[in-house]
Design brief:
The strands form 2 sheets. A 6-stranded mixed sheet has the order 2-1-3-8-4-7, sandwiched between helices. A hairpin with a 2-residue loop joins strand 5 and strand 6. The protein has about 290 residues and is of the alpha/beta class. The protein has 9 helices and 8 strands.
Length: about 290
């Protein structure tokens, strides 16, 4: 009996020691000895790593993405004097539009800026392209020195030559925000400039004009338009070669009627509803919104 017990001890004790070593190794062993040992580190999201703005809305990346650009900002106040400045008004309108889109769902949204910061014109559309946006809208508010004053919003798309003299003047004024002491701070490549005459961009231009027409349609009877049809000019902020883009002059900041409309809660909501409905209609047409 003693002999049997001794044999069992010789066999079982090493097995027990080996089993204990396995348990200890799995419990306290160093990472990297097998697929069971994985160190998980919470890394920042892709947007944070790239320094891009946050995308809000559905988590489904197949949902369409619109990038909203609040014009001006930071050291560039835009139009307006005193307490009401274009950069503040455009940000308020951008936030109202973002909230409308998120509330009604189905569309992802990003803002080029959500605070008072200066962004070079070329970088605004570049942000949208880096995010993989499907649509881009830049929001502005004009001013005028006309004796009788000017009233109402205008929708612009890109073209090499302005649709009229007023459009060319507005484009020149908006593009001038990238001038410091007469020197261009943006580096506009020949490739970007070439999109104005590149036939491969016809589809993008057609979609931009379609989106602009939808804004005019949705806004009929809801917000005033100075021009009843879409206008065009060489706006630097619209020069993304493959991204449907529109610049929306929401009204004249120095016109008392436009000023009252755009600064009121109802006016901001009307703007957001009109543009939001146009965005949803655009994506529905192109089968990006179920």
């Amino acid at each position: 009996m003693r002999r049997i017990m001794a044999i069992l001890a010789i066999v079982l004790i090493p097995l027990a020691v080996f089993a204990a070593m396995i348990v200890a190794d799995r419990t306290f062993g160093a990472p990297g000895r097998g697929y069971d040992y994985v160190v998980k580190v919470d890394l920042p999201g892709e947007d944070e790593r790239a320094g891009l703005p946050k995308i809000e809305g559905p988590l489904d990346s197949s949902r369409p993405l619109v990038v909203i650009d609040a014009g001006h900002g930071g050291k560039d106040p835009g139009a307006g004097r005193g307490s009401l400045r274009e950069k503040d008004l455009t940000l308020a309108l951008a936030l109202a539009l973002r909230d409308d889109l998120l509330r009604k769902g189905g569309v992802r949204v990003a803002l080029t800026r959500d605070d008072d910061r200066y962004i070079v014109l070329g970088e605004r559309s570049a942000i949208a392209r880096r995010l993989g946006a499907d649509l881009f809208i830049s929001i502005h508010a004009d001013s005028t020195e006309e004796a009788n004053g000017a009233l109402g919003a205008t929708v612009y798309t890109l073209s090499a030559k302005g649709s009229n003299q007023a459009a060319e003047k507005i484009a020149a004024r908006e593009n001038a925000v990238d001038l410091i002491n007469g020197i261009h701070v943006r580096d506009q490549s020949d490739e970007v400039s070439a999109i104005l005459v590149d036939l491969s961009q016809r589809e993008t231009q057609a979609k931009s004009e379609e989106f602009g027409a939808l804004i005019l349609r949705e806004g009929l009877g809801r917000i005033p338009f100075r021009e009843k049809t879409g206008q065009s000019a060489a706006f630097a902020v619209l020069k993304a070669p493959d991204l449907p883009s529109v610049l929306f002059e929401s009204g004249y900041i120095n016109n008392p009627g436009d000023q009252a409309r755009l600064t009121s809660a109802q006016g901001k909501q009307d703007f957001a509803t009109v543009v939001g409905d146009a965005i949803r209609a655009f994506f529905a047409r192109h089968s990006r919104l179920a």
